[in-house]
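stage 2 :: seqdesign
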């Protein structure tokens, strides 16, 4: 891969910081714009090839200034607002206006590749499982609606955009979803319950391998599903956490999904494999166990959710 000047919006977040850990040692120069809404400066190292700008991508002047000074060749658009599902203005400011600012600044700037990270909530309540990439978008949460609008602006910008519709990615610093919740509560001897929902889980190494592939292949364009294509219930996740911790746990209640939740989200990655040759390599069990080993070593940090009906016991999506 050629040496990149890589702009990562939201680079202090979970996915962004893992991408930095991967790309910085390879000799690329990286600029991060992050307002620390859910990310943390401490997630990033202090190294000469990494510049971190504190601010919002909704700030048009800041974005323009960053492009002028840094002159990126590649962009991974990872910034997203979701932590208060009732704060529609913040979600649209970051997820719509922020995406527009990145698109506008990129136009005419010779950007070779712009990767957008998209939530599977863009599909709303799917009518087909696994969800093919051709499934219509029908988001109904503030996060889903705003991320879908942002993605639409990027796609029609004329830029070399690939938008990846992602499964639940597991890896270092994951602070959302059932895995950290169960791990934390079980270790604290607290009760748990599971929502009656099914999700697909993807290991960070599989996520990074498709980003690698897309950054080096300028031919791939458009929208792609990124997942294993395998669904697992939240109860399956609970059972894996229990077995990893070697706890004796009584049967837990399985409750119906909240009203802003989706019962089954499993993305169909077959088109992605056809177009790029990529497929996930890490099994469900290893994905969960890798995650739990990381919590053993580093602990669980803050937990956020974009679901209004969720609480610390019931979190399903990234
Ligand atoms: N992690 C997953 O499993 C998953 C699944 C589907 C989609 N995604 C998408 O991937 C991206 C990264 O997700 P993540 O899991 O790393 O979340 P995250 O919350 O850890 O990272 C998002 C980052 O964006 C930053 N941010 C928020 N508003 C901003 C603004 N206005 N300006 C600049 N920075 C801002 C946050 O501080 C944070 O560091 C998001 O776009 C998300 O929608 C993630």
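stage 2 :: out
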């Amino acid at each position: 891969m050629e040496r990149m000047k890589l702009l990562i919006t939201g680079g202090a977040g979970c996915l962004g910081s893992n991408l930095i850990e991967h790309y910085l040692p390879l000799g690329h120069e990286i600029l991060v714009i992050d307002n620390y809404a859910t990310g943390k400066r401490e997630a990033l190292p202090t190294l000469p090839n990494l510049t971190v700008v504190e601010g919002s991508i909704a700030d048009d002047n800041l974005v323009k200034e960053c492009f002028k000074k840094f002159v990126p060749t590649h962009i991974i658009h990872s910034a997203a607002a979701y932590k208060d599902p009732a704060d529609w203005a913040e979600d649209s400011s970051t997820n719509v206006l922020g995406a527009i600012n990145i698109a506008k600044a990129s136009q005419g700037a010779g950007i070779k590749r712009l990767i957008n990270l998209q939530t599977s909530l863009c599909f709303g309540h799917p009518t087909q499982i696994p969800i093919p990439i051709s499934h219509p978008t029908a988001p109904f949460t503030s996060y889903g609606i705003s991320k879908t609008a942002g993605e639409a602006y990027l796609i029609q910008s004329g830029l070399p955009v690939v938008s990846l519709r992602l499964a639940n990615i597991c890896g270092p610093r994951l602070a959302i979803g059932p895995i950290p919740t169960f791990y934390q509560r079980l270790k604290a001897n607290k009760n748990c319950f599971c929502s009656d929902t099914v999700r697909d889980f993807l290991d960070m190494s599989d996520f990074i391998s498709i980003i690698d592939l897309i950054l080096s292949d300028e031919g791939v364009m458009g929208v792609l599903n990124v997942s294993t294509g395998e669904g697992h219930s939240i109860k399956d996740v609970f059972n894996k956490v229990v077995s990893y911790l070697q706890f004796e746990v009584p049967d837990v209640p399985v409750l119906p999904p909240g009203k802003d939740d989706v019962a089954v989200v499993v993305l169909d990655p077959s088109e992605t494999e056809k177009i790029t040759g990529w497929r996930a390599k890490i099994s469900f069990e290893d994905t969960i166990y890798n995650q739990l080993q990381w919590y053993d070593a580093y602990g669980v940090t803050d937990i956020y959710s974009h679901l209004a009906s969720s609480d610390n016991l019931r979190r399903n999506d990234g």
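stage 3 :: structure notes
- The pocket of nicotinamide-adenine-dinucleotide is lined by residues 9-10, 12-16, 33-39, 56-58, 78-81, 94, 98, 117, 119, 147, 166, 168-169, 318 (CB under 6 Å).
- The first helix runs from residue 14 to 23.
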